[in-house]
Amino acid sequence: MAVASYTRASPRVTSAASRRHRRLALLLAGALLLLAVICVLSIALGSRQIAPSDVARAVFEPDGGEIDAVVRGLRVPRTVLGLFAGAALGLAGALMQGLTRNPLADPGLLGVSAGAAFGIVLAVSTLDLTSLNGYIWFAFAGALITSVVVYLLATAGRGGATPVKLALAGVAVTALLSSLTNGIALTDTEALNRYRFWAAGSLSGRDAAVLEQAAPFLAVGAVLALSSATALNSLALGEDVARSLGRRLALVRVRGVLAITLLTGAAVATAGPVVFVGLVVPHVARAITGPDYRWILPFTMILAPALVLAADILGRLINRPSEVGVGVVVAFVGAPLFILLVRRRRLAEL
Question: Measuring CA to CA, how many Å separate 120 from each of 169, 207, 209, 211, 275?
Answer without folding.
Answer: 22, 18, 18, 18, 18
